[in-house]
Amino acid sequence: MSLLVVGSVALDSVETPFGKADDVLGGSATYFSVSASHQTAVQLVGVVGSDYPVHKLEPLKALGIDLAGLEHAEGESFRWRGRYRHDLNSAETLETRLGVFSHFRPKLPPQFRSAEYVFLANIDPRLQLQVLEQIDKPKLVACDTMNFWIESRRGDLMELLKHVDLITLNDGEARQLTEQANLVQAARWILDKGPRTVLIKKGEHGAFMFTRDSIFYAPAYPLEAVFDPTGAGDSFAGGFMGYLARTNDLSDANLRRAVIVGSAMGSFVVEAFSIERLLDVTRDDIDRRVADFHRLVSFDQGMPT
Ligand code: AMP
Hints:
The chain is an alpha/beta fold. It is built from eleven helices and 13 strands. It has a single domain (3-297), classed as Ribokinase (UDP-N-acetylmuramoyl-L-alanine:D-glutamate ligase, 3-Layer(aba) Sandwich). It has helices at residues 28-36, 58-62, 125-133, 147-152, 154-161, 171-178, 183-191, 232-247, 252-269, 276-280, 283-297; strands at 3-6, 10-16, 19-26, 42-48, 65-72, 78-83, 92-97, 117-120, 140-144, 166-170, 197-201, 207-210, 215-218. Helix 1 crosses helix 8, helix 3 (125-133) packs parallel to helix 5 and helix 8 packs antiparallel against helix 9 (252-269).
């Protein structure tokens, strides 16, 4: 099934306790699409400025990512500068430069309009809404967001919630959006606003999937070394949506499997800067990690006490 993503295609400058990288490939749509491409073909919609090193996007094409919806605009590319201190769970944004994103109006190529699985990655919710107006009849629409947009575009975000089936956000964002300290209550609050499924990510503490009738929890993979957490959330979403699009099964059991594939992809991306690790990971690596997850959470319930 076709999978479409709209989001940022960025140049990131990142500092972690283990090193520093300047102007490397980043952005929510970039991480998402590379991660998802290990499951299925991906159509990408976004914008880059005249300063973008477009030749560095060649490996994306080789992974089957269709860049027909990537606009090349006059001006500076979107840039994000962030820092992680010893708590690798939360990024400190040092600078966000919207550049060509501030005038961007997403235009879907005609062949993208029939996409069945749609991910509105982290960008201005007004742009996320504009994409939905151009889509025919998707089977599943999911969105992501972040503190930047919760603060500056709350009204648009609330409108967006009415039109999506699923939202992914991290625990801090869920608390900020809902003003609920308790995550179960935060999820209920969001479920009342439109989405049927809420995925709350908790960094190294895993992820929860909430629906009206069930809660599923997946731990994060216990890595010995996390190098750069940037993109973990988008790579999680890419694995999750890619798996759903490939299997085209929206049962609860399959959504749970998709959460594990997403968790596996999140665990790979943090092993190196930028999308480096996602480019060389193989389907065998992914399958092995999913099997590791299965062992990690299986236990024998034993005799009733
Ligand atoms: P995450 O998966 O949550 O770690 O997202 C990391 C990516 O989000 C980085 O590559 C950034 O370029 C991108 N990003 C950061 N701030 C924004 C923003 N305000 N809008 C869109 N993308 C952003």
